[in-house]
Amino acid sequence: MDMLFLGSDSDIKENRQTGTFELNFNKKWLCLDNNPFYFQVVSDATRKNKNGKKISGNDICMAPILLNGQPYKLFFSRSYPNEKVTVIGLVKNEDREIFLKSGNIPFERQLPNGDLKGLKKGDIVTPLYFYVKEDEIDDSKPFENMTNEEKIALVEKITARGKSITIGDKPKFEMANLYNGIFAYVFEFVNSIGDASNNVITKEGAVCKVKNGKIVKVIHSEYFDDISDLED
Predict the structure, then answer these.
(1) pTM, whole model, 2 decimals?
(2) Cα-flanking dihedrals φ and ψ of residue 217, to 5°?
(3) What gap in Å lies between CA 194 and CA 104, rounded to an integer?
(4) 3-state secondary structure 72-127
(5) DSSP H or E segment with residue 23
(6) What is the chain's Cα-based Rg?
(7) How many CB atoms lie within 10 A of CB 55?
(8) Dihedral (CA of 48, 175, 82, 116) sign
(9) pLDDT tens for residues 116-161?
């Protein structure tokens, strides 16, 4: 099955006393005027309750985009508990690898630095996604062993452009309900220190069907074969 990646989040429920961790996926994702964006959390300054749920503070996230045809990184913050989205600004995206392997890049390299650019009416924003076709997946050569030319070629191959959006008087950035469809999510522990090619400690996944803003069916990824498994 072909996959369009929407990024990653750090919003989980955790109980460190029992060692229990639960995904807190609530069918919402970053959207601009109801168009979902790929994004990743690059800094988390939130406070959690005893169940590990974020109740105050904010996190900073990054979304790769094209701004008027040029590559930029859009930074925004989410405040809790209401998940209000506030745009921080944009910086030119000079690091073409960051979109492909940002999970292995230290947070300080992803945080905004230098002059920040704002959005203005008439700007054209195009979200970028990580898109992989099933018959093109090749794990024979790790990313870390590729030449710079091979890395750039791979990034170009897997980068998909979304619908272009023209900024109006009141652009609506928000955590909005995902459209109807099939979505998969993976819960993983990652060791941010050491060998980046072997930093995932454990991983569990699930595939779910979202309809009218609700998750109507969920299957563990280990038992998912095709979309027909999620038929009503």
Answers:
(1) 0.77
(2) -160, 140
(3) 10
(4) EEEEEEEECCCCEEEEEEEEECCCCCHHHHHHHCCHHHHCCCCCCECCCCCCEEEE
(5) strand 20-23
(6) 18
(7) 12
(8) positive
(9) 889 999 999 999 987 777 666 566 666 667 777 777 777 777 788 8
